Amino acid sequence: MKQSTIAAIATAPGESGISIVRISGQRSLAVLREIFRDSQGRKRQHFAARHLYLGYVLGKDEQILDQVLVTYMPGPYSYTGEDIVEINSHGGAFVTREILALVLQQGITLAEPGEFTQRAFLNGKLDLMQAEAVIDLIQAKSKAALQQAGRHLRGELSYRVAAMRELVVGLLAQAAASIDFPEHDVPQLSAQQMQTGIEKALADINILLSTSFAGRVLREGLQVAIVGRPNVGKSSLLNALVGKQRAIVTDVAGTTRDIIEEFFSINGIPIKLLDTAGLRQTEDPVEKIGVALAEETMLDADLVLVVLDQGQPLSVEDRRILGDSGIGRRFVVLNKCDLSSQLTVADLDLLQGENIFRVSALSEAGLAELRTAIAEIVMQGVVQLESPFVANVRQEYLLREAAAYLQAAAETVRSGWPLDMVQIDLQAAYDRLGEMLGQHASESLAQEIFSRFCIGK
Predict the structure, then answer these.
(1) DSSP character for 297?
(2) Would you call 349 helix, strand, or coil by DSSP?
(3) Which of 157, 163, 269, 418 has a 20 to 30 A CA-CA distance from 174?
(4) Dihedral of the alpha carbons of 226, 375, 215, 79, in degrees to the nearest 10
(5) Per-residue pLDDT tens over the stretch 256-305
(6) Is the dihedral of CA 120, 121, 127, 132 positive or negative?
(7) DSSP letter string, 266-287
(8) CA-CA distance, 166 to 201, in Å (whole number)?
(9) Which residue has the higher pLDDT, 157 or 361?
(10) Three-state SS for 68?
């Protein structure tokens, strides 16, 4: 079935140097011939592939809308695999919309979000992981994330998954041959050989799975929650770490009611700081909501900075926060180190074994050490940036499913079951790896992935 020809504005809204209207589909060239005139005002029938032509876009009344540069990229050697035309106009929002409206008047359909990349996937120009890399490239928050998305777009992650899939299909083929053609001269696969092959595939998957945390950190940033009771200096610490007055700081307890997010970078990796409401018992209904959000954020964070005021002995609330935040990775930040410590012997005993940092959010003393410690967490597993990482939850889920099936296959071999019983789990693992690449992807899955793209991409 032939797809309709689609068009959209491919550049960000607003005023800029240029704007691009992109057209993809069988009628792209026909539309260009209809609305474009060269610099001498003549229609052109022939457009050489991937050449720029200077001229004008004319409206229905033959009035010039804009002077433009146009490019024709015939399929299949284009981004979508279809004929593509790009019209580069001056970057005014109104003139760009007028050019798009003129194109749509030629019977062209307005593109849905991500539809250009979806067509690239459907036409075999990209696999599903490469398509996902496009949105990661657009949304990259650091140089490291940009480099990783570029590797995925080039197919490095796809190559590793395809290699795992080849290993599994090789085991499937050997098992099937030894079962279906025992009377032929087919080398018989021993249980030990099957076990070794499965363990090799499982090890490869687990190596890739170990990068899932690093992949999320590159994509979204390390989630660092700053928690503590009111007026211990949480907002001051956020301001000091990011180097600007991002959060309101006052002597009034309970100033912060909502989650304040701010990014800064360590070694090219984004750090997402989350300043939270002071944790305490309160009857204020608005503050209660803020406290609940703070507790939820604390549980979801990759790293929790528990801020304590060392100018005062630990309160009941401080001790409760220390108890509640001990589930995951945390640092204890003793703020106001420029003041004499009022922590008691019992307080210091309670903090034994903690990762403690003495800082002053006011003078910035000790902040360098805190940043270095955060950087060490960031770089755990992210040190080999030349290797591809698991990029998102979908990929991680399918890898874990494939690993579970391979583990089940290994257990079947160890239990002495016939090889045809092993084939079931091997086939399931093979299918899950194929789903990562987008083979047999459902229409709803494709729509969910590409709907996250902007219109025009």
Answers:
(1) H
(2) helix
(3) 157
(4) 110
(5) 556 788 777 776 677 888 888 777 776 677 777 777 787 787 888 888 88
(6) positive
(7) ETTEEEEEEE---------HHH
(8) 10
(9) 157
(10) strand
